[in-house]
Amino acid sequence: MRELERNRDAPDTGASTGLRSLAVIGAGRTGGSVTPAARAAGLDVRVGTRGTAAVTAGGSDITLLCVPDESISAVCAEVATATDLPAYVGHVSGATGLDALEPAARRGAQIFRLHPLQTIPAPGTSLAGVPAAVTGSSPAAAEVARTLARRLGMVPFDLAEEHRAAYHAGAVLASNFVLTLAETAADLLTRAGVKDARAALTPLLLSTAANWAGAGPAALTGPIARGDEETVRAHQAALAGLAPELLPAYTALADRTRAVAAVAAYKNQGGTPVSTPKIVRTREELRAALAPARRAGTRIGLVPTMGFLHEGHASLLRAARERCDVVVMSLFVNPTQFGPNEDLAAYPRDEAADLAMAAAAGVDLVYAPAADHVYPPGFATTVEVGGELTNVLCGDPARRGAAHFRGVTTVVAKLLNAVGPDVAFFGQKDAQQAIVVRAMARDLELPVEIAVLPTVREPDGLAMSSRNVYLTAEERIRARALNQALTVAADTARTAGEGSAIRDALAAAGKVLADAGIEPEYLEARDAENLTVAERFGDRPVLIAVAARVGRARLIDNVVVQVVQVVQGA
C-alpha cells in the first residue's frame, strides 16, 4: 500500500510528504491552472471530468475536485465509487464546507480544502506565491493539503472550518467588492463629466493597493483620516443631488473608515494617537476600574449604546468627553427591549469598529457585558415607568408595547447603578425613551443628570440610526420623507402661529408621507414633556413624532415645535 494510504489510518502521526500522483477533476479555470503547476512540480497528473471522476481518481495519492461549488457533493459521490479510493480527497472552494466531501469520508478517505486566495480568470493562471487557505479533517489531511499547496508553488495558511464563511466574506470584500467600488467610483466620475473614468482611476487604485500592502491602515489618507468632516458632509450633499442611490454606501463606508482611522491612530501607525479604551465585561471589573476616579471625586459620564455606532453616537461620546473627566460607554444589545417579532438576532453588530470609534472619541472605559451577566439565571426584577409615558406612541399595545420601555428602564437602571455616573447622555431621536428615562431618574431620586442631545442627521435629513443599514438604495431615498414630513408640520404650525390647530400640521405631514408611499405606524402630536395629547400649538412645546416601516427597517423620528406668539408692533 502506498505511504499516503498508510497514513490514512494513522491521522495523528502526521502525513507523508511523499506525494507522487494527483487526480484533478475539472478542467476549467482552476483545474486548468492546477494541472500545469502540478506537472511542472514533477507530479503524475491525471485529469478527469464529471462522468469519468471515479476512473480518474482510482489509484491516485490525492484527488482534487476543481468543479463548481454546486457540483462538489455530486462529483465527490462519484469519486467515492472508485475501486481503489484515494487516501485523500479535497476541493478548492472557499465557500463550501468539508461536509460536501462526506461521500468520500464515509468510505475512509480523509478530506481537505485547498483554496487559492486569488482570482483565477483563465486556465493556465500562475499559482506561484498565491496564498492558499488549508483545512483538513485531521492533522494528516491538513498536512497533505499544505504539502500539495507548496508543490503547486502556493503559500499555505491554516483556516478553521468554523471560520470558513467569515474568511470567504473577507475574500469577497477584497476582490469582488473592490471591483464593485471601482466601478461605482468610475460611474460617479462619469456623471461628473470625466470622459475615461477607468483610465483616470486606475493609477490611484493600484497605488492605494500597493500602499496598503506595505503599510496597512497607516496608508489611509483623505478627509476622514485627517478629521475633515466638513468635506465628508460636502461629499454626502453632492451625492444626495447627483447620485442619491450611492449615499447609503458612502455613509456606511465613511463610518467604517472612521473606525480604521482610529485603529491606525491608537496603534501609532499614523494620524494623531489616541488612547485605547479599557474594556471590561463584568460589573465587578467596571467598579474596580472606576474606583480611583470615584475616590478622586472626578466627574463621570455614561453613554449607553447598543453598538453599531454611527455619528449620532459619536456626538454623544464627544459631548461626554467635553463635560466629564471620565467617559464610560456601555456596549450591550439589550434583549429585553426587543419584542418576539423584532430584530434581536439580526440587529447589526461590529464590536471592533465600535471600539475603534470609542477610542477616536476619547472614551476611557467600555463596559461590554454578556447577556447572562446582566440577566443571570433567576433574574426577576424589572423597573417600570407607568402611565401615559409608556403606553402611547411606541408603547401603544398595538405597536411595541409598554414592555419595550420596561426593558429600557430596567437595563438603564442597572447601568446607572453599576457605573454611578454624574451625567448620562441620550439622543433626541429616541425622544420617548429619553422622556421615560428622565422620569425614572426623577421618581427614583437617582443622583444623575439625564442630558438629551439633538438628533444627528444625514445631509438629506434622515435621522442617523443603526437600522438605516437595512435600507436598500430605493428605500433610503423614500425614508427621507420622514424628516421632510416633520419639517412641513413644523413650518405649517409656525406659519399659522400660536393657537393653530394640530390637525392642519399633521395633515400636511401625512401628505408628504403618502406621496412617498409610506404608511406611518403613528404620526402624532404630544406634549413634549408629559406626552399627553397636544390640542394646539403655543402653550407648551409640542413633540410631533412619527414611526414607520420602510422595507425591513422600522424608523422613528421627531421634532419639537415651539410656536411663540408675535406681539404686533413689538
Automatic annotation (TrEMBL):
Q: What residues does ATP bind to? A: 306-313, 427-430, 456, 464-467
Which keywords describe this protein according to UniProt?
A: ATP-binding, Cytoplasm, Ligase, Nucleotide-binding, Pantothenate biosynthesis
A GO biological-process term? pantothenate biosynthetic process
Q: One GO cellular component from the entry? A: cytosol
- Limits of the Putative oxidoreductase/dehydrogenase Rossmann-like domain: 56-116
- KW DNA repair (keyword) present: no
Q: Where is the DUF2520 domain?
A: 131-257
Which InterPro entries does the protein's record reference? Answer: 6-PGluconate_DH-like_C_sf (IPR008927), DUF2520 (IPR018931), NAD(P)-bd_dom_sf (IPR036291), OxRdtase/DH_put_Rossmann_dom (IPR019665), Pantoate_ligase (IPR003721), Pantoate_ligase_C (IPR042176), Rossmann-like_a/b/a_fold (IPR014729), TM1727-like_C_sf (IPR037108)
Q: What does this protein do?
A: Catalyzes the condensation of pantoate with beta-alanine in an ATP-dependent reaction via a pantoyl-adenylate intermediate.
The entry assigns this protein to a family as follows:
Belongs to the pantothenate synthetase family.
**What protein is this chain from?**
Pantothenate synthetase
